[in-house]
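pipeline: protein-struct stage 2 | run 1193 | DUF6545 domain-containing protein
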Amino acid sequence: MTTQQTIRLILLVVSWAALIVRSRAVLSARQRPMWLALLALAIEIALLQRPVAEVVTRASGVPNLDAFIGGFCHVAMMTILWTVASTSPSGPPSRRGSRFRFWFTTLTVVTMLVSEVVSTLIAESTRHRALPVTVARSVITIGWLAYLLFVAVASVDCTRRLWRHQKATRFGALRLAITLLCIGTTASVVYVVGRTVTIVDGSHPGSPSALLVMYASSTYFLCFVFGCAIVVVAPIVAGARAWWQRCRLFHLWHSLTEAVPGVVLEQSPSIGRDLLRTRRNAVRLQRRVIEIRDAAITLREWITPEQFATVTAEVAASGLSGMEASATVTARCLALGRRAKLAGEERSTDVPDIATSGGADLDSELRWLTAVRDAYRAAAPPPSGDRRAPAMDGEGLA
């Protein structure tokens, strides 16, 4: 088995595995396009396997049918990718652009279909992969020109648009997927150049232009398959990430909401039970962040300005700075407020300005809460002037 055949077999396994694992994506309007794009790729790659191509040709009796079907699958994949890349988060896609893509794709498909049917009916001589023997006086050449023109236009525009999406995307997995798709569309342009040369000069496998086509096609297949597969399985990755982040905040959440149970919408009495909750992870993570923030806002009312000043001074004296210092101050104050509330003490008449929020978006808030959690679980000793210090001696904060 050659290196190219090995790569194609690996891509076949990866693409079909992702399709099967994420088969439910067909039911989602947002996830369906990329799932269908990956399906088109998977069919195209399957047709590149020699046993599959032989079965298709033998069963149909039509020479090069595997190459024809593979070409239409590639057009379908590029059309979906082009449409997805043309969407804008700020609003609906341009009607003019949508009409151009529709009619350009339709004209390409009709031209390819007519040229391939006529070429088959007149039993036109072709080379491997349905390439024309000579570029002149060959019906199949018209289909190839339409196909290559479509791939070139779609790839160039996709590269430009995907690059903009890549710069605006924050989720790491999606950034990687879009980067791979950008590389794939760039390789498609190189493929068009190499394939045009092979059609014009009639070069055969082993020639420089044929090698360029082989390397370019291998590159875009690798990038397209893994890029689409990442997009398709990204919800699973995001869900697992949200589940892990939610579980990491369990001890901080459980400790604070024990003192302020009214903010909790869904009880989770143990970390074991929390770990077993694997559905609606994104919603549960957002809810946990909100409940921690609400509990923190409430517990501030049991901290006096004097205690806050003492904690701030001690943290500053310890050499901490930036987010670590602010998170440590917040963690110690929340521990003091929790103790006071559970002990039934009176609220403070003057609530100090303790930081309870880490940013405007979920990612920054999670970074902040992780720092607070680390400081909270460290069970730092209470300030020396704390009126509740004896009650906290020898007992962890979490």
